[in-house]
Amino acid sequence: MAIVLTVPDAEGLGAIVAALRAWQHEGAPMQLHPGDIGWFWRFGAAATAAALRVWRRDGRVLAVGLLDQPDLLRLTMAPDLYRDAALARRLARDLGEPERGVLAAGRANVETPAGALVPELLAELGWKADEPWTPLTRDLAEPVPGPGVRIEVTGPRQAHVRAAVQRASFDGSTFTGDRWHAMAAGAPYADARCLVAHDDRGAAVAAVTVWSAGPGRPGLLEPMGVHRDHRGRGHGTAITLAAAAALRELGSSSALVCTPSVNTGAVATYRSAGFRPLPEVRDSCRPG
C-alpha cells in the first residue's frame, strides 16, 4: 500500500493523539508528545488540526508532524519505523518539496527523534544541523520532595491567573484566559494539569502545564515559566518539583522537558529539581 499524506479535520484529532500516546515509552528518545498537541490546542481544535501533517498506510498512522510555527515541523513516527527506509524517503521528499504542502520554501527546521533515518536523508539534500537542545528527564518511581511554596491547580476560575503568569514569563506570549479554556477543552487536557506557584505574599510567581501520556508512560512539562519580576528566588525549581509530583500522581513513569542548550539557566533549574540531562539533540535546518 502507498503512504498517504493527510491534513486531518478536528474530528480526527482523537485518533492522532491516541497514536502519539501509544508511541511514548521509557527509554524512547525525546519526541513529539501528546502534550505538544495539547498545548497547541489553545488556538482551538480547527487550528490544531490544520497544523498537523499525518502520514498513513492502509489506515495505520505512521508519522505525525506538528507545524509549531510555519517554518518549524516537529515530527515523530511509530517507534518501529524510525529506520524504515521507505517511510524516511517519503518524509524527506515531502519535507523538501514545498509544493507538497508541508513546509514552505526558504529556511525551515524539522525536529525528529534521535536515531531516526530522516535527518540523514535531509543532510544528503543539503540540510544542516541546527543549534543544540538539551532534553532532561526525572524518574518518578519515588516520591518527589515538596516544592516549599503554595501550589494551586488551575481551574476555570483561575485561568486568567495562569495566563497572566505565562505572559509575564515569556516575551511575546499571547496566552489568555480564553485560550486556556480552549486548551482545557481539548482531548489531551483530560490527562493534564496547570499549576501556579505563589510566594509567601500570595503573588503568582511561576506556572507550568504538565501532560500525561497515560499510566506507565513518560509525561511532559510544556511550558514552564517564572514571572520576570520574581526570578532568582528558587521559584523555577519549586514549580518544576510540583510539576514532577503532579505527573507522578497522574501515573507517569518519568517527567520530560527540553530546552535550548544555550539557556543554561533553564538547564540548571531543571537539574536542581532532580532532572538528568540526556545527550543533546539538533533539528535539521534547511538554509534560506
Architecture overview:
This protein is α+β, with helices and mostly antiparallel strands and 288 residues long. It folds into two domains: 3-132, Aminopeptidase (3-Layer(aba) Sandwich), CATH 3.40.630.30; 138-280, Aminopeptidase, CATH 3.40.630.30. It contains nine helices and 13 strands. Strands 1, 2, 3, 4, 5, 6, 7, 8, 9, 10, 11, 12 and 13 form a 13-stranded mixed β-sheet that branches. The protein is globular and about 60 Å long. The relative contact order is 0.18. The model has no long low-confidence stretch (mean pLDDT 97).
- Per DSSP E runs of 2 or more residues, the count of β-strands stands at 13
| Residues in helices, as a percent range | 25-40%
Do you know the CATH topology of the largest domain? Answer: Aminopeptidase
Mean pLDDT over all positions = 97
